[in-house]
UniProtKB/TrEMBL annotation:
The lineage of its organism: Bacteria, Pseudomonadati, Verrucomicrobiota, Opitutia, Puniceicoccales. PANTHER family: 4-AMINO-5-HYDROXYMETHYL-2-METHYLPYRIMIDINE PHOSPHATE SYNTHASE THI11-RELATED, THIAMINE BIOSYNTHESIS PROTEIN HI_0357-RELATED. Residues 49-247 form the SsuA/THI5-like domain. This is ABC transporter substrate-binding protein. One of its GO terms (biological process) is thiamine biosynthetic process.
Amino acid sequence: MSKKAWILNTCLGVLLSGCANDRTDEVEAEADGQALRKVTLKLDWYAEPAHGGFYQALLNGYYEEAGLEVEIQQGGPGVMPLQAVALGRVDFTLGRIDDAIIGVDRGLPVQLVAAYMEKDPQAIMFHASNPIDSWEDLDGKSIMVNPGNAFVAVLRKRKQIDFSVIPLDYGIQRFLKDPDFIQQCFVTSQPYFAKQQGVEVGVMLLSDEDYSPERVVITNTTFAEENPEIVKAFAESSLRGWKDYMEGDPSKTHEYLTGIHNGNTDELNAYSHKAMSEYKVVFGDASLGESLGLIDESKLEKTIETLRDLEIVKQELRASDLIDYSILPEAVRVPVK
């Protein structure tokens, strides 16, 4: 290792340690005379129905019942939530499980807490008039996607196809104007906006390509080691919120989401909630042994192996490098029947 690299790593280590200790001190603070532990959740995007379970837990008092005072911070374009939790600036964040694996491979001190979506709602969206029936039909096309997404390499290698990548701009204006345009989307949102503009769309869910990284809650490794009871309480309360959001009455949460982000509407909230149910995004497919919260160890090992085969991950990582099942709820370890 060069002297410059050694200095950089040393400074980063000091910074990470200091930030993590600061957050540990903060969670001991009392709120309103009660011994509530203050923790922060950083979203990966603006507040939307895809975060509904966390807001359901907040509004219904599930976090407070577990002794937590939770602040939910919104994300947006350019926000790097994984780095924020690695630096100890927040206690929890959200992301795809493969992003967490890549982060650990690159030295970030983060670990997994629970899966809040068993199936990633990311998809490829195209005009219904565009004759695309399979992944092979994408060969030779141009697709607007996030260039850093691992699924780009997965599709190219597994399907033996090639396509040009247009960097994602997080909008659908180009899609609306060009019937041949293809782009990455969330099945819970962009198809709705396209249909609102009179464009019928088709989608192919990326999780249907035998590469289905869960969307997960992520925390700082030092924070988890020093506060295992907080991590477990946050996981249990969040999963309770998600179950209630999907199976109970989401109206209060939808009203709240509309109030805190002007991109949300009653119609979008209803569409997103229905899409999550129809595509089995949150609970997964019970026939495959999937259930809310579960991070299956063998599947995690398989995802790591896939990323190594693609040379995206360099280290010989194991599931134990990413998750400590001993401090987590049973739902994370064992499928719920």
